[in-house]
Each structure stands twice: as structure tokens, then as C-alpha cells.
Amino acid sequence: MREYTEQELVRREKAAKLLEKNIDPFGSKYDITSDSKKIKELYNDFSNEELEEKDIEVSVAGRIMTKRGKGKAGFMHIQDKYGQIQIYVKLDNVGEDAYQLFDTADIGDIVGIKGKVFRTHTGELSVKAFEYTHLVKALRPLPEKFHGLTDVEERFRRRYVDLIMNEDARRIAFTRPKIIRSIQEYLDSNGYVEVETPILGTLLGGAAARPFVTHHNTLDLDMYMRIATELPLKRLLVGGMDAVYEIGRLFRNEGMDRKHNPEFTTVELYKAYSDLDGMKKVCEDLFRKCVYDALGTYTITWKGHTIDFSKPFKSANMVDLIKEQTGIDFYKEMTLDEAKELAKKYNVEVQEHYEVGHIINAFFEEFVEETLIEPTFVCEYPIEVSPLAKKCADPRFTQRFEIFICGSEYGNAFTELNDPIDQRERFENQLKEKKLGNEEANDMDEDFIEALEYGMPPAGGLGIGIDRLVMMITGSENIREVILFPHMKNR
Hints:
The chain is an alpha+beta fold and 491 residues long. The chain has 16 helices and 18 strands. The chain has an eight-stranded mixed sheet with strand order 6-10-11-18-17-16-15-14, sandwiched between helices. A five-stranded mixed beta barrel has the order 1-2-3-5-4. Strands 7-9-8 form a three-stranded antiparallel sheet, with no helix packed on it.
């Protein structure tokens, strides 16, 4: 058992004294009629004389964040989910017992206040307390505002403290669900149905990623936590659900950095009788709506750049973008050895399982990605890195795009491959890659091929990384800022 600090001991003594007065240190139900946001929105334009004339009664509750006063009156700020509101507590108004509770209260305690809205001599909109109710005794002191949580790792480990102390953390926490609601509203209003698919499965598919492996005791079966929702969702297209989407967690057993967390959230959507152009429109509309709904403007500043989402997104082919940066034209037919020579000349890493298409993709990642600032659809990915997308007229490339903004990828879309014969060949090529050491290659999914053999309508599909979208809209440089409980290394 750890030793308590002096402050913690004092707070425990105060909790014991509350019990002696038959006051529960940890409170009970309290009826609230207003909050800091509502008070400011409704009454910010009124003078004190007008407020006194209106005689506005409110009941609010929150955590004590500041406290000052001497003798028979004092001020404090309490904080609710929207922010802070000042409270004026005077002995003559609340009575001796309640004033003593205020006088002995600590920063961090949670209290309830019934009173009237007024404006102080300095002009601050406040609540004059007529009833003061102790609700919760905080047994630990809050960290100092400016130097209590300087360790960023500790902010993420103790998110509950971060949310108390950090206004920006609260802003992000409340903006994220707004963005998710925007996505749902757009898709629901356009005829998509929200569905749920399994998190546990026995096959890898739908993305190139290393999985988390677990074990089902009853079935005595090793299972994977899903790396994508694509293949189950496309099965639903076969079944006649012609427009579906899922917002859910994916799990990839890979590195952690400022843009990657092993557990993250995406939206994947599939639309029968659509294609890549249809997905471009959906992607553009979704980004535009999410930005506006969250910020009230189409313009954001992100990574030092001003991005206007009211403008049409750019579109370009991967090979053309590589040629702009390097002068190399990968549309020219070349052998694998020739492509490897180019990679060697330009210091591009080549792995054992690479074919020409992998090398083209590696050139894009090395020389192009970071140059894409304006929202840009990068199209026509090589077939080797797109096992689930329909071929272009040039069968070396596929009807696929990824959306890039300020050097980062935010979404991935296909004209979906619905030819079961072609799909089987693609899966077989993935198995060959796995034997050559590609741990991210897809498994052979016989049931998915069987589903395609019943006939899947021509379709477009799109996946968007919600965490990265929230990062961009909220101006957060680290993915852990936008996930309430990110994974952390052990202390």
C-alpha cells in the first residue's frame, strides 16, 4: 500500500469530518437545471440591472477549479463539461453551515449550487449562491495547472485528469462524436444502412496488415481480431443490402507512432451499382460535411497549410505523380530486374516478395506522398498492392484511389472486384507473397469467393480513418490526442 502525501491525509481527515456531520463525502443525486454554456449563451448580453430584474434562478454543479475569499464571502469557479462559471458565496445568503462547507472545501471537490444569475462589479457573468451542497470530496489534489502534467505520456495514461485540466482535451473529446454523427447523418440520408460485422474471425482479409491473434476456448480455435470490415460488408451486397456501412474498431498488430495506434476506428461503406467516381463524390461530400459541422467553416489550417474544403478535390494517377517528382515513367513496360535497378539507383528499399507494382508503390511513398498538400485522389494503384479492386483497361493497374491531404492518407476506395475467378487468382498471389515473407498478405477466403459466385452487383467501396480525420479537423498532431484511451507502453 502506498503512503499518502500530506495533502491526501488532510483531505481524508476532511472526509471523515463530513461524515461526523452526517454528510456523505461522496454525495448523491443532485438536480441540475442549467450549465456554464447555457448561462453564458442566454444571459451574456444582459447588464446586472437587467439580470436582477429578470430574477433568473439556476441549479448548477461542477468541480471547484479556483477558490478565493476571506471572512464572510468568497468566489470560486466550478467546471462542468462545457467550461467554467464563477460562483459568489456569501455567508448571509447560504447560512453558517453551508458557508463552512465552502470555506473548508478543496480545489477538485464537486459541489452543487442553487442561486441567481448576476454580473459582478468587474463584469463577469456569475451565479450568486443561495444554496451550497457538498457532493464529492476529492481525495487527491489536482496537478498544478501549468506544470502538473508536463509529461505528455502521463496525460494519455490518466486521461481523466487530462480532461479536468486541459480545455483542449475536452474540446477534442466532444468534437469527435460530432464528426461521427456527421458521417452517420450523411450516409443515413443517402440510403445507406448501418450494420455490424464480427470482430473475431479465422481468416485475414480486407487489408494488408499484421493481426492480433487470440484463442476461442470452446471451439479450441485460434482467431484473429479483424484488420478490416470489407469482406463481411461485401457479402451483404451479395445478399441484397445494396448500401451498407459500419463504423467500428480495427486492430492491427503493428508499430505505434504519431499517426498509428494498434486499435483504431474507421468507417467502411459499400454501394451497389456505384464505382470509383461514385466513391469520389461520397468522400468529398463526407469530408466537406464533417469539417463544416465541427467547425462552422469549410477552411482549416493543418500542418501549416490552409485547406479550403469547399473547393473540388484534385485527382491524379499514381504513375503520373511519380513521373512529376522523379522523371521515371512506370507506364513503360519493364521487367522486375529493370524495376529493381531503378529502385537501387534511387535508394528505394525492395523486399523479397516485391514485383514491379510493389516497387511503383514504394516510389510513390518515397517521393510523392509528402508533396500532396491539397486534398488529392491518387488513382490507379498497381494490381499487386490492390487484391480487392477491379482492374483498369491496363491490367497492371486497378480502379482504386487513396485520398491524401498534407502528406497523409485519409481514405481508400475501389471499384470493387466482383469477378470470383479473378478474385481467386488475386488471393492465390497473396498466398505466394506470404510464403516469400509478406506477413501482411491476405488469406484465401473460400467463403467470400463462394459469395461472389452467387453474384455481387457492380459496386463502389470506401474506407476512411476516423482518427486521422478527427486529428485534421481538431488540429491534433498526435493520434493519441483523439483517442480517449490510447495504448501505452508499461511504465
